[in-house]
Design a protein that fits this description.
Number of domains: 2
Order of helices and strands: HHHHHHHHEEEHHHHH
Radius of gyration: 22 Å
CATH topology of the largest domain: hpI Integrase, Chain A
Strand content: under 5%
Number of strands: 3
Distance between the termini: 58 Å
CATH superfamily of the largest domain: Intergrase catalytic core
Number of helices: 13
CATH architecture of the largest domain: Orthogonal Bundle
Helix content: 40-55%
């Protein structure tokens, strides 16, 4: 993601500089879009809270220097009492994302942009998140998702995307960024978070679907594996485009309302663990930094075994 950032929401100039910094440092598309929205919400709140007379685009460096931990705490308190765009209250997980964004913003403008202020977000705390188990699809639900793609336009491309997704556990951004040069026989080189490189093996299902797609993929100089609609000038398919496509099929397949494309990653991890794959191996394949992140899937499997004990009773 190189080049100048194209905004979808108004921001102060320093926040725009921050967004450009994220883009030139290869932050994922999902993170950048999320941070833009979260910073927009923060500054809209602060305009009212601090009784600022100008607009969000008028906010100066002096205004940003005046932000205190009390201001930030007031914003977090505001979120806990507010209703999100979805019509539901902000969850602790959603608020934690705002906190992470704010901390990242102030850290970057101080350490990289050399803004001489004490970091007001240093002691900003996220609300405690209740432990929840990752949601995943059953085999029957996965098959319904596959079936929903049948006879659709761009079938070969779309079914390949979904099958690679659920058979490798890649992140959405990693999937969207697959290049031809990343694939060597049945090995896929993945550049994950923090530009860390890892190797993922492609099973026969992945390879067959990719080969079928390649047979109809238009010839183009685009190095990305997955490109946009065949009738258009060939362009790479973005993570947002893939998400929209998968969510359309999920609705058609009648999948639960909690489903998002990321649940395919959960499905892969839960299935691998239930089949006896070692935790360390799953961690490496998923690109988790800490084993504790992977261990949550063990709790999912244990819950499933507990339910099975109640179901199977002769």
């Amino acid at each position: 993601m190189k080049g100048k950032y194209e905004m979808k929401h108004e921001l102060p100039q320093l926040a725009i500089d921050f967004m450009n910094y994220l883009k030139t440092n290869d932050k994922s598309e999902v993170t950048i879009l999320s941070y833009e929205q979260e910073l927009h919400d923060l500054f809209i709140f602060l305009i009212d809270y601090k009784k600022y007379k100008g607009s969000i685009t008028d906010i100066s460096i002096d205004f940003i220097k005046s932000i205190t931990i009390m201001d930030l705490n007031a914003f977090i308190a505001h979120l806990t009492e507010s209703v999100a765009r979805s019509g539901k209250k902000y969850s602790p997980a959603s608020i934690a994302k705002y906190v992470a964004c704010i901390k990242s913003f102030f850290t970057i403008i101080i350490t990289q942009f050399m803004l001489k202020i004490d970091n007001p977000s240093q002691y900003l705390k996220s609300p405690k998140k209740p432990e929840s188990l990752p949601k995943f699809l059953t085999r029957e639900q996965v098959q319904r998702l596959f079936d929903a793609v049948c006879s659709e336009r761009n079938y070969e491309r779309n079914i390949a995307i979904i099958k690679v997704f659920v058979n490798t556990g890649l992140r959405l951004s990693e999937l969207a960024n697959i290049k031809f040069s990343d694939i060597n026989d049945n090995q896929l080189t993945v550049i994950g978070k923090g530009k860390k490189e890892r190797m993922v093996f492609l099973n026969d299902v992945c390879l067959t679907s990719i080969y079928s797609y390649m047979a109809v993929r238009p010839i183009t100089d685009c190095d990305k594996l997955f490109v946009r609609n065949y009738s258009e000038k060939c362009k790479e398919l973005t993570g947002a485009g893939i998400r929209q496509m998968i969510m359309g099929y999920a609705k058609k397949a009648g999948l639960p309302s909690w489903f998002t494309p990321h649940k395919l990653r959960h499905t892969f991890a839960t299935e691998a663990l239930s089949k006896g794959v070692k935790m360390e191996t799953i961690r490496d394949v998923l690109g988790h930094k800490r084993i504790a992140t992977t261990e949550i899937y063990a709790k999912v499997v244990n819950e499933s075994r507990k339910e099975l004990a109640q179901i199977v009773s002769f």
